[in-house]
TrEMBL record:
<feature type="region of interest" description="Disordered">
    <location>
        <begin position="31"/>
        <end position="59"/>
    </location>
</feature>
<protein>
    <recommendedName>
        <fullName>Methyl-accepting transducer domain-containing protein</fullName>
    </recommendedName>
</protein>
<feature type="region of interest" description="Disordered">
    <location>
        <begin position="326"/>
        <end position="372"/>
    </location>
</feature>
<feature type="compositionally biased region" description="Gly residues">
    <location>
        <begin position="432"/>
        <end position="447"/>
    </location>
</feature>
<feature type="region of interest" description="Disordered">
    <location>
        <begin position="425"/>
        <end position="452"/>
    </location>
</feature>
<dbReference type="Pfam" id="PF03752">
    <property type="entry name" value="ALF"/>
</dbReference>
<dbReference type="InterPro" id="IPR005506">
    <property type="entry name" value="DUF312_ALF"/>
</dbReference>
Amino acid sequence: MDAAKQAQNVVQIARDAEAERIRADKQQAIAEAKEDADSHQEERSRAEWEEAEQNRVSEETRKLLNAAEAPDADPATVVSKGRQAAVNLLSTGGPWTKQAAQHALTGTDADVRQWVDQGRLIAAEQDDRARVAHIADTGEPKALREAAKTALDGSYADVKAFLRTKAYPGEEDDDRLRATQILASATGPAVKEAANAALDGTHADVKEFLETGQYEAREHDNRINVLRIMDSGGPRLEAAGQAALQGPPEYLRNFLDVGQHLAKERDARAAVHHAEMQRLVKRGMEAAAEAQGKAYEAAQSAAKARNAADEAAQYAQQAQDSASQAAQYADQAEQSAQQAKNSADRATQAAKTARDAAASARESAEQAAQSAEAATSSAVRAGAYADSAYASAAQARQSALEAGKDTIAAAEAALKALKSMIEKLPDDGAGEQPGDGGSDGGGGDSGDPGQEEYRDLEIENNLSKADAVVILLDIVGIFDPTPTSDTASGIISLIQGDWKDASLSAVSLLPYIGDLIAKPAKFKEAFKSLNNIAEFAENKAFRERIEHTLRSFKDRQQLEEAAERIDSFMGDAKKIYGKNKKYLEEAKKLGLPTEGPIPFVPNKKEGIKKVGSGRNKGYEDAYGNRWV
C-alpha cells in the first residue's frame, strides 16, 4: 500500500509541475500579446494605403511644414523645418512622397526650399493618383472602379474628393445591402445593435458602420464570447483566452475560430493522461488493498486455529474493510477509465473542429492576403514609377551642377526633369497629369505605340496592363545610364521582335543578386561569358539597372536568355557604331540611346529610318523594334 501511495504522490508532483509550466507559458503568451497589441496600435495610427496623402501627415510634421511655409519665414527656417518634415515623411509618406523627401534631403538648401514650395505637393498628387488607380483596378463593385477612373481623368481636386468620399452611383443602396447582410449573419448583440442603428439612420451612419462601427462592435462581442468560453474550460483554454484578451483584435478572432479548439484539445489530451495515471494508481491501490485483505484472512485463520476468537474477529473485520477499500479503488479506477475515454472523445472532437476551423480560417486568410497583395502591388508599382522619376531628377540636378550652374538653377533643372517624367507616365491612372493626353492630344489606343505590347503582355503572360507597364519601364530603365536616355525612357515601344518573347514575364532573380550590385568582381564573374555586359562591371549605375530589370524573371533560364539578348544588343551596337560614325552621330542627334545595356541598333543596310505613322511611327532597329 505504501508503494501505491508513493505513486499517487509522484503523480501529484507531476501535475503541480505541469500547472507551473502552464502558468509560465501563460505569462509569456500574455506578454507577447500585449507587445503585439502595442504594435497594432502603432500600425492603426498610420494611414491606410487608400487614404489621401495629406491625411497621412502627422500633427508634428504639419506644424513643421506650416512653419516652413509661413510667408515671413526666413530662408534658414524654411530649410531647417523643411528638412525635419522631410525626415518624418520618409517613414509615413507614400512612395512618391518618400522619394521626394529623399531627393530633398540628399540635395542642397535650394532643393529643400523647392520641395517645401512645390516638390512635396507634386509627389502628394502622384501618390493620391496611384491610390485612385489602385481602386480603379481592384475596387468593387464595378461602379466604384468606374468612378475612380472618372476621378483620374479629372483634376487633382477631383482625385482628392474621390479619395475623401469614394462615392459612386448606387453607393447608398450597395452600402445598405452590405449592412443588412452583416446584420443577418451577426451572432453577437453589439453588432446587431450597431447594424440596426446604422440602418435606421442616414447613409453617413451606414458608411461609418461599414468602415469602423462593425469592427468595434464585433470586437466587443468577441471579448464577451472569449470570457464565456474561458469559464467553461481547462487551464490551457483559460491561458489562451487571457492572451487573446490582451492582444490585438485579430487575436480574439483567432481564438474564437481556431485557438479555443486547439486549447480544448490540449486540455482534453492532458485530461486523458491524468485520468489514465489515476486509473493505474487506483488499480495499484486496489491490488494492494486486496493483498492486505488476503493477509488479514490468513491471520484470521491462524487466530481461529489458536482459538483466539476475539483476535480472529478483529482480523475478519480488517479483511472486510480491505475488501471494501479494494472495491472502492476498483470503482475509482473505472471512473478514471471512463473519464479518460470521455476526455479522449472530447480531444478527438476538438481536433476535428480545429482542423475544420483552420481550413476555413486559411480560406479567409487567403482572401485577405489577395487584397493585401493587390494593395502591395499598387504601392510597389507607384514606387517603381517614383524611383525612375526621381532618378532622372537627381541626374538632371547633378548635370546642372557639373555644368557650373548654381544650386537654384540645379534645383529647377531637377524639377523640370521630374515633371517631364511624370508627363510620360503610362496612361494607366498611376500618375498621368490631368488633361495631358500626350503629343497627339488624344490619349487613345490608336495613336499610342505602347498599347499593343500592353495587350500582348496581358494575353501572353496573364499580366494586368499596369503590371505590363512596370515591366516595360524596368526594361527601359537599363537602356542607357545617361540623362538623355533616362528622360526618353518612358517612350520606347517594343512592338515586335524576339526581345519581347525572351524577357517579358516578371517575378524574381537569382538569390545572389544583392552581391552583384555591391561587388563588381562577382558581377563580372556572373556574366563572364557575356563579354559586353562584363565590360561594364565597374559601372555601378549599369549594375543597378541590370539588377532592377533582371530580378523580374521567373527562373534562371529566362534570366540567361534575357542577359544573352542584352549582350547581343550591346555587341552589335559596338560593331555598327564603330564602323560607321555616321550612324552614331545620327542616333545621338535623334536622342536614341547609343550606350549602356541596350542601345539602339541601326539596320546595317538602311541605317536609321523613320517608319510610317500612327502606331507604326518611330525608328526601327536591326531587331525589328521601334523606338519613338
